[in-house]
From TrEMBL:
Residues 381-392 have a biased composition (Gly residues). One of its GO terms (molecular function) is protein dimerization activity. It is an enzyme of class 2 (transferase). One of its GO terms (cellular component) is membrane. Residues 39-207 form the Putative sensor domain. InterPro entries: HATPase_C_sf, HATPase_dom, Put_sensor_dom, Sensor_HK_TwoCompSys, Sig_transdc_His_kin_sub3_dim/P. Residues 342-423 form the Histidine kinase/HSP90-like ATPase domain. Its EC number is 2.7.13.3. Pfam families: HATPase_c (PF02518), HisKA_3 (PF07730), Sensor (PF13796). It catalyses: ATP + protein L-histidine = ADP + protein N-phospho-L-histidine. Residues 236-303 form the Signal transduction histidine kinase subgroup 3 dimerisation and phosphoacceptor domain. The chain crosses the membrane at residues 20-53, 118-141, 173-192. This is histidine kinase.
Amino acid sequence: MTVAASPVPRAPWRLWRSPYLWLATIHIFGDSVVVLTSGLLVLCATTVVLLGFPLAAIGIPLSKGANHLVYAIAGWERARARITRGQEVPPLMPPPPTGSRTDDALAALGDPGLWRQLTYYAVLLPLAIVWIIAIVVAWSIPPVLIALPAYYSQFAASQSQLGPFTIDTVTKASVVAAIAAVFLLLVSPLMMRSASAADGWLARMLLGPSETGVLAERVTQLVESRQQVVDSVEAERRRMERDLHDGAQQRLVSLAMTLGLAKNRLGDREPSVRALIEEAHKEAKQAIVEIRDLTRGLHPPVLTDRGLDAALSAVAARSPVPVRLSVDVQPRPSLTIESIAYFVVTEALANVAKHAEAAQAEVKVTRVGDVLRVEVRDDGQGGADPAGGTGLRGLTDRVAGVDGRLTVDSPPGGGTTLIAEVPCG
């Protein structure tokens, strides 16, 4: 964000101790030099941008180069504001290259940043004149008037004229000197502070991005960072699934096979030992089933290998409630979006099996443009309330994590319709 345009203290009696008072004076005094140098360069560069484009092979590179020159000059002005006023103005960015010289030149010609920066130097021209007058009024005239008692008598007929007033006595000269001293101590610093603040406001408005642009950029950054978090979580789910599938599950399978061999070799001997081995064998096979179900819930390998159609077909086949499935998601979305859609369907069908008392269910997964739509219907008893359980709340939170939306329509006795819409552009 932009720092305050002028760090000069507000209280007049503190202004004289602030180094920024003098740096601000130097800055606004230098505006006239900037207008005559940088301003003319920007005007020439903008003219090249306007007139160079029709020159085709020669003019297109000139237009692009002139556009970048304007940004470089504006960068010098932002650096000057940072040094003299302590003001940080975020830079404007030139149009990104498109790979086409013609398109790049057209982008340079219609670049809003180019015209904002040109406007800055155009507005700075009359302001620089105002600032010079303000500096003269603030710092030159008061010292001259403070010294008036010492030289007023040197004027002809021992009189000096101050506008409509005639200064012909030392008392009048002393009053003028006192007023000038008060003006110098209290008003002059405030004039410089106000001029610096106005100059800083102009730089912030025209040399930096607008507040809307800053907010839009921040929103973009937050969306990107959130997407990175979601993607990292999904990657961690896939890693856990691989570790369980290739590690713990394989060890349990090996253990179950070893226990089966031990049971067969033992035969009818040692009935008590055989009973223990059979119990351990049964527990090992049950653990394998549970780990397999867990890995399917995390991220089934078939989802990565073959996509939503194959993964959801397996889910529908395992469902105790008959499921009619329709999947049309071309082009295929990202793995993160596929994982969320898979999770929505599996959780919804689990709820149907546990609570709905339905005779059948229907699942439709379609992609319309950049939106993946997941619809799960059943003909059960209805009455599902997202606020009444953690399952639907978890679905809502996971869908909302990628800017999606989940709605549940479940009138008592009328079945349940769950619709999730997730952006997948």
